[in-house]
Amino acid sequence: MEPVSRRAAVLGAVGVAGATVVGCSALSSAQTQPTVNPTAADPGTASASPSPTPTVDDTPRWPLTGKVLKNPDDAKHIAVAVKVPDNRNEHPQIGIDKADIVYVQLDGYRDSTGQSGTRLVPVYHSKFADTVNPVRSIRPVDIPMLSPINAIIGNTGAFPWVLDYAKHYDKYLIPMKSYMATKGTGAYSILSNRVRTWQGRTYYDRAVACHPEKLAKLAKKFTDGPQQMYFPWAANDDEVSTEVAGEAAKSVVVPWKTGSSFSMTYTWSEKAGRYLRSEPWGKHVLADGTRVSCDNVLVIKAKQVYGKIYIDGSIKPNYGGHDEPIHDIINTKGTFYYAHGGKYVTGTWAKGAVNKVFEFTLADGSPLKMAPGQTFVELPNTKAKITIKG
Q1: CA-CA distance, 279 to 264, in Å (whole number)?
Q2: CA–CA distance, 303 with 262 (Å, rounded to integer)
Q3: Which of 367, 345, 385 is nearest to 46 (CA)?
Q4: 343 near 247, Cβ under 8 Å?
Q5: Which of 207, 306, 327, 332 is the most exposed place for a label (fewest CB within 10 A)?
Q6: In angstroms, rounded to a whole number, what is the distance separating the alpha carbons of residues 97 and 188?
Q7: 104 forms bridges with which residues in the sheet?
């Protein structure tokens, strides 16, 4: 049995050919309101042909997938996000494939130390997984990621300063319905086959499971669901940016550690009509044998900030004594890559206040238009060398 890290335990709680390598320069200060440069793109990226003028789309859609919504009342329930560890020894996972959006973020260490793994945040709204496992703790970036969605977050807690940060913005999300805070409600359970013992102690870090539909019933606000489209959805297939001016993207490789290592890979499958996801050690496969895949891959390169947090536009010191990394996505901008259907486009992303959605501008100055469907969002460092093979 491997040693247990200081972050690992929820203790006793149950009582390359043709490859293009692309980079990005440093971002502007997080205190500066974003000014998007419509021509900003990585060196060597060909300018795309101008996109047609987008049509006005008043079709009712699921806000997190962009898919057509037959009955608008079906969307009137809260979205549920769940914190899921993604280190190798915490696999296999359960329920990731049912999410509308899956975020990939740092596990909780500095990338530069070489210790960092990744953590996932599947978000459920158009449908709920029955069970999501394992479940772990909140990260600072969850606040600006999930505030525009008004989500409730399934979790096992967080460092005190992270919880204080989350509570400061509880007008936008519900972060405090953790495993220990909801015992007896059925929102969480323990999977007995994932309980482990090491050096005579029992650990439940891999065993906590969340049940999103039951967790959703604990919400006393945001019960009408997300009130805005989270991504810029195309009105029709012809309007999707990758169809208008995309370049070939048979695979997208996203490194997470210094030296472009610990990479997540998305490989286009004509047969499946989706991107198949792989972890650094091999195919991303769930406990039931399902290969993880998605319709859209969105890479948002963001600066990693340490020793400070952002509250109401002001920088404050990290007051918890733990140097939790923060993906810098408030009042700033950077480079993005969007892949769909075996093609990709690139441009500049910008995000305003904590509760504002991302805005995406292509290299030719036109707005990004995404295909409806399930989206994986990777949040690597600005220095990460994204490799796209055509």
Answers
A1: 5
A2: 18
A3: 345
A4: yes
A5: 306
A6: 19
A7: 120, 378
Check: CB of residue 374 under 8 Å from CB of residue 273: no
DSSP 3-state of 97: helix
How many other C-beta atoms lie within 10 A of the C-beta of residue 323? 13
State both tokens at 65: 């997938």
Alpha helix ranges (H) inside 180-320: 212-216, 241-245
pTM of the model: 0.85
Encode pLDDT of 332-382 as tens digits: 999 999 999 999 999 999 999 999 999 999 999 999 999 999 999 999 999
Average pLDDT of the segment spanning 304-310: 71
Q: Report helix, strand or coil for 199.
A: coil
- Can you tell me the distance from the alpha carbon of 81 to that of 346, in angstroms, rounded to the nearest whole number? 27
**With contact defined as beta carbons under 8 Å apart, do 121 and 111 qualify?**
no
- Which tens digits make up the pLDDT trace of 121-176? 999 999 999 999 999 999 989 999 999 999 999 999 998 888 888 999 999 999 99
